[in-house]
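Open question from group meeting: does this chain pack into something compact, or does most of it stay loose? Before anyone orders reagents, we agreed to write out a predicted structure and look at it together. Recording both the input and the output here so the notebook holds the full record.
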Amino acid sequence: MKRILGMGNALVDILIRLENDGILEILGLPKGSMQLVEADRSQQVLEALKGYKRSLSAGGSAANTIHGLAKLGAPVGYIGVIGEDELGGSFVMDMINAGVEPHMIHSIRETGRAVGLITPDSERTFATFLGAAIELMSDHLNSEVFKKYDYFHIEGYLVQNHKLIERAVMLAKENNLMVSLDLSSYNIVEANLEFLQEIIRKYVDIVFANEEEARAFTGLEPYNAVVEISKKCKIAVVKTGPKGSLIQSKDELTEIEAIQVTPVDTTGAGDLYAAGFLYGHSRGMNLKDCGDIGALMAGNVIEVMGSKMTDTQWGKIFRHLEVKENIS
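Structure tokens returned:
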């Protein structure tokens, strides 16, 4: 079975449900964005919402994707930086318990955290303190780790470190890995557009984007955006929320329907879509089946708070996969 390596910001998610969008305006956080903040700003947001219920879980975009792949049974590894603290320890144990091989770097800084604010429409807005995660540098990467894998998945949140991304994708290609990139956030795309376009054209095989990220990258709406992105890579995926997703490879467009769910929190939906898609692709499935598994994963995770699914959700997923494999 193909092995998949992920790299990202190793964070602990602190998720808080809001009563209305107005609180985001008061806090100065653009809805749907991921804002990088310092420790004191992160604490300020938490203090302003200290009366609200919150949940904690290991997170970070690529970590969510790799964790999901591990739960599906794929052999996976993960590169990230954590602090030598309780949060860092719990992050690693969560990954190991799921079946992930950790390639972690340890720092004296505290483990990063992402405060995720969930509005009534299930949209999420993040104020992220990277902490130790920001110390992930190009010098931490070596060819020996990449040689063990067949796929390399990167979260777009790392793109601001151009040197790190360039080193990572070059090592991946030198070792014949297929590279996938999740654009992660529209404001990250806007701030790094020229660099992203060059890196994708030279090194990336699969690009994942939601509507806002695709628009930031191309200036176009989903159907035209997925075509434009596919000109720079082998496979382009544009996720369109409850409408499903679009997959473009060469001249072939595949439309995927979203599954019917009762949304609670969209945190992790894109990450788990990528997990399902990469699981299918690494097993040689066609693009329709890859997209269907992605939609299945995304649909189930938005029925729970946070990016980790319950045994009930996983049971639904495994039953669906058994039926699909029996049909195939």
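Observations to bring back to the group:
The CA atoms of residues 83 and 111 lie 4 Å apart.
The mean pLDDT is 93.
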